Amino acid sequence: MTTDNKPPFGEHPLKISAFTFAGLAMMLNIRLVYSAAPYALLRFKLPENLFSVFVRIMAGSLELWCLPSMTIANVMDYFRRRLLSDDNWKDWYYHYQSIFWSWANFLTFVILWISFIIGGEAGNVTAFYWVVAASGFVFGINMVMVYAMEFQYLPWYMIGENSFPMVTSLMHYVGTLFFGNRRKWNSDYIIVTIDIVISLAISLVAAVLWTWAYWDAKNDGYPPSDPNQRVCKTFSVSGTTDLTYSLNPNYADSHADGTDNCGYKKSYAYWLHFIPPSLMVLIGMGLVYCIYPGIAPGMIVPFYLIDKIEMVLLIATAFPPVIIGIMKQYKINPYIPMGNWGTYHKKACKGGSNLESGGGTTEQCKCPNGSSSSSSSAILRLHNTTIKASDGLIAIATIKVTNSTGGGTPYTGLINTINNGTLSKTGDLKINTKLQVGEILTLSGRGTANGGNEINIKGTIIVTSPGSLGQTITLDGLLAGTLTLSDALAGSINVTKETTGDSLNANTPSALGGITVNIGGSGVTGNATITITATKDRDDLTSISEQVNIRDIKLTKADGGALRINTTALKPNDTLNLIGTATATRFTNIKVSGMITITSGNGTLGNTITFTDDVTSSGALTLADDPDGESVKVQTGGTLTLQANILTVLQNTNFSLISPGSDKRVLTYEPRLVTESRITIGIKTSTIGKVTLSGLSLIPVCITSTNNFSATADLSLTHNQSASTDLKTTGGLTINSTSLSGATVTITKDEKDKVASLSNGDLQTSTNLVPGDTLTLTITKSSTETKLEGKITVTSPGNLNGNLTLKGGLTGTIRDLSVRGGTLTASNVNITNLKYDPEEFHVNHESTHCCFWGGKVFKWSDTNPKNVPWHIPVILGPFQICLAVVLVYSLHYTDSNISRSIVNQPKMSTALSIIFYMCHEIQLALGFPGIASDPNILLPMQLIGAFLMVLLAFYSVGYITEYKRNDPLNWPTDGMTTWNSLCYWLKMASKITNKNFKQLFTTETS
């Protein structure tokens, strides 16, 4: 998986627009109910004295119906995350659901328009009511769907959501300006229609943008790459006689779960730091409509100022999310992916270098001038044996069994006894020692063969699954049987095999022969690779112990052309695809795919084809042109066979890459050629030609110049070496590329590079380079078949004039760059001290680090110093609660100094009303970013906040109703204690609230 065609994380312009318009469209129905209510009342010929009841019932129905839909969406999300195992299906499931509900939101405005215009002169208020209620249901589930998507775009959603009051007020103002004259226009009908139609248009644009953004059901790419950060590597081996050990970025997420781990949801600190932003959300949502607008400004501000407060808030509400969005663009970001304000995943830097500020709240890795956390050479190994212990330990091993006499020739056959056998490692080793993945053990000993001759046994063992060895280990592969273990005095383990008891055999064949293909009688030959793949999740191909038969074989040309037996010419390097089905005991219709590469000869395919070595054909297979006109098929009865003894060798053949040193740790290893889902055949280990190590990343190279220019180069090594028998020995094949004397250096600007000052024209040594510019650096030495290649990223401005000093991942000086056709070249450059970082390989840090965001290495940290200040605004919650108490207090204790300084005091009452409401806006603008990265927190907090907001708003209406219907001269709580007075108001507010709830579902109007 790569991200070349994906916009960076959170920077997709289409999704930015989609989330912004989703925010604009989300609450249009709520605003429509409030702003258009006076005109809708008259449209439906209702008495004007029912205005407050009409608004309350319409708004209440919309708000109440959003609660069950939000609950349903939360339940759906809960089960989606726990029942659906495939992340791609999870994404697809929500992407398409969110598209559906965005169109449903648009459809509600269409139906709302229809319900408004039908019904003749008096209209149909019942239909209008139920459509408004239905729009609330759609609004609730649609909002949860948006929040459940990509949290990195929530700032844009919140900007849109908080801008919609200005938008709706503007369109309402324009409508009133043009059609407000009731003598000339049917204003009540036209203004509401305009509001609905504009809302319909906005929701249509929102639905179109959302569909366009998420139709392919794909998420973003990754955040901008830090070239100095460690990269998780995946390891693979390919080829037939020429083997390539390839290292590539591992884009799959991989999370460790040790004690000091990146399994961050096990950290108490992680959960504790969600409390402040959660409180900000709950208080901000739950408290606001208890007070606003009924109490403040409604009951404490002079009436003539209420509209002015509304106008101020229409503009002011947009500022908090806009400010957060601007800060985010300048790297001051409260949205913390895979963490929160107090905890986060800290970058792991190549070579163990330190982190430095990357601007705002971001961090970046320094370019290391040198580090002890590095290695300069690598050892490649080919393993032929698998070892298992009762404690769960699994290991791979390279074992050699040779005759003590006769020049040390390989021995195959029964082994009677082993004496003087030893297992050891760096440090003490006991049978109960807990061994970790990557630890390397050494096996040595002598024994007696079946005929009584003495034999030697040597082996290198690499742990691939942790555990202890125990008293016995079971081996399979070149050496098969059981060995007995016991502790020795010198911190090692004694290894024995008694004369009686379990058998121990040195097997043959012990190496793979590949697959050789002979085509007809034309002299055309080739090699083949075949992959057998399980088609059912429950299939476990490692359980196959008998031969595998391949049938229904068809051949096609890999380049897509037609393949015919008598007319298609074949030549070296041509490739044919092979497909078929495989069967074994308990397995049927297993998928088979493969490739045949022509290695010698010229001719046509002919009528027959023969397979030998690891996969054999039942004689010469007869070929015939397939009726499809494009392929060739093997006639019925033609079968390929993978014998059981070859399958055993495949099951126990492994490859590893090891960094030499005192730590004795494996860097990475290739899983067995036989896994639960796949069998890979075709690699030849009996004789090996050339070995290539590809993609070994160096520690970043720090480039400086005399003109203050500086840059970082991220280089990878490719090294070709003629194979020797070392690859199959216990010592392995050492790739020693610590220096390149007399190398050639080239610097170019290729298609993917960026140079701001060079839109056209060739690269020159005098070209001005600025931070962020990239170039391609290549260092080669043909005599050693070694190549270093990668990207230069400019960090300080300057040019390439003068000498370039290289430090870090290698040491050298580039002098006298010459220019030809835009390519800068220097010859006879001496490069020394090549170093790579062993910790880039996940097997070396899997208990403490994790890989995500394109295979970058991170380590979990329970402290996040740069983002702790985001907790400070949590004081707004207690402040808003205190302010609410003060406002209610001022209504009940009118003779107090507090009441005299607030109620009907224009400046103070206006300021407190605005401050109270803005506390709500600021808390939401900051609180949601604090919980956005974890949907298990975000969606429940949003749901609880919505319940508090809606239900407490109803309760507030009940309280205000009771308050206003009492005569101040005959106040009902006069003479009561404070507690009894509080209980009275709570009781009466509850009674009226219950009555108001009933009105939503009945025809009562009083």
From TrEMBL:
Keyword field: Membrane, Transmembrane, Transmembrane helix
Protein name: Tpr-related protein family member, putative
Transmembrane segments: 16-41, 53-79, 99-120, 127-148, 154-179, 191-215, 279-305, 312-330, 870-891, 911-931, 937-960
Organism expressing this protein natively: Theileria annulata
